[in-house]
Design goal:
Radius of gyration: 18 Å
Keywords: DNA-binding
InterPro entries: DNA-bd_HTH_TetR-type_CS (IPR023772), Homeodomain-like_sf (IPR009057), HTH-type_TetR-like_transc_reg (IPR050109), HTH_TetR (IPR001647), Tet_transcr_reg_TetR-rel_C_sf (IPR036271), TetR_C_16 (IPR041678)
GO molecular function, one term: transcription cis-regulatory region binding
Number of domains: 2
Protein name: TetR family transcriptional regulator
Order of helices and strands: HHHHHHHHHH
Organism: Herbidospora solisilvae
Length: about 180
């Protein structure tokens, strides 16, 4: 891939991620993405094909949870707890989190979201677990991760900012340890 193609592809992905995060999948058009990226709509279609394929790629390339999961398995619960505590107490959200929140309910998009969560969260956590049923235990941890988004959506960002940050993180760590243990 040439540098120009790489740069254009990156601009399209960033524009798509920002627009999907701001407006939701159903409200964003390929023309909007092209205009935001400063690219021709035919180029967007050539590089990514369908809007759903572009959504999947924007989701995959924008996620940062992998860096939280990676590392020493013994510290996984603490890393996940820290990530969630920060998300619950912060007013900031990642574009990928907002993309998931505003993704819509079409079966095609739900399948993309499920595949993304399975690949980036469940399977990666399960790979770090010893003992029986690692995917089931990883799925329990994923429910906590995804539930954080629901709580933020319902109650607003910074929903638990008045609670001691250390206490929140410690309780989340304990909950993750329970979910992840054999």
């Amino acid at each position: 891939m040439t540098r120009d193609r790489e740069a254009t592809s990156r601009r399209i992905l960033e524009a798509a991620r920002d627009l999907f995060a701001a407006h939701g999948y159903d409200q964003v058009t390929m023309r909007m993405i092209a205009a935001e990226a400063g690219a021709n709509v035919a180029l967007v279609n050539r590089y990514f094909g369908t809007k759903a394929a572009l959504f999947a790629e924007a989701l995959a390339t924008g996620s940062t949870i992998e860096s939280v999961i990676a590392g020493d398995p013994a510290g996984l619960a603490a890393r996940l707890a820290h990530r969630l505590a920060v998300r619950l107490q912060s007013g900031a959200t990642e574009p990928v989190t907002r993309m998931v929140d505003r993704a819509g309910t079409s079966p095609e998009i739900q399948a993309i979201l499920r595949a993304h969560v399975e690949a980036t969260v469940v399977k990666r956590i399960a790979a770090q677990l010893d003992g029986p049923q690692p995917e089931q235990r990883a799925l329990l941890a994923a429910t906590m991760i995804l539930g954080t988004g629901s709580v933020r959506r319902l109650f607003g960002p910074g929903v638990i900012e008045e609670v001691d940050a250390h206490q929140v993180e410690e309780r989340l760590r304990e909950m993750f340890e329970i979910c992840l243990r054999p």
